[in-house]
């Protein structure tokens, strides 16, 4: 009976800790993309996407998660990464881009996510455009209505002609250990992220040779974006747009991400995309584990009908 009473108190504290702590609210904006509008023959507009997450931290839940992970894996975990997984998304909140010619506002969804698509004119793009080694982009400022919360976001321009490298992150450019749930947990929540040897150099080479843009497509959740961005900067990978999932500590997708083998399906996905758009895909590169004979045979079977280079 005492155990049940303590458990009820514990749950009550977790559910009501907003009254006990001054929880931090913040806004994360993921780099996104813009394409030329071809829906009208005479249009010179761009179709722009804006993505992010507005959240409130929950320090007590973060501490509980930290202790559970440390007990399970017997490692010290980075509390800053954990905080974003136990944070609460702020539902139906008004957020506005306020540095364009006119404000562009939307509301967060039930998870606190921002997923907005809109058009802006070529003239306005030309006023905002910035070019550097990472390609052509525009910067925007997004704010939360009636809150002193503002964040700068990036939108990369993908023109009709050019080369874009669409890259996975886990075990492609960052050591994650997706074949082991324990390794994945440790490499996600502890220590500094480690780069796969040689990948930064080859990405920089492709960027310079082809004047290429980059898009990072990953099953990792967007709560990891700030730490992945730090990794990308530190290891000198080209910057680009990020396309990520979203789930929290209490979401079933949290378990499936760390316990599943979805990475095995990736080659099938790449092959099916090539078969659908053969004229738009130049090459497919897949990192293979050393001495993985079974994996090699599987790749040969999947890509049997796709041209290969030796």
TrEMBL record:
Checking Pfam families in the record gives: APP1_cat
InterPro entries cross-referenced by the UniProt entry: APP1_cat, Mg2+_PAP
Provide a Gene Ontology MF annotation, just one. phosphatidate phosphatase activity
Q: Which domain of life is it from?
A: Eukaryota
> Which residue intervals define the domain Phosphatidate phosphatase APP1 catalytic in the entry?
163-259
Q: What is this protein called?
A: Phosphatidate phosphatase APP1 catalytic domain-containing protein
* Record organism: Rotaria sordida
Lineage of origin:
Eukaryota, Metazoa, Spiralia, Gnathifera, Rotifera
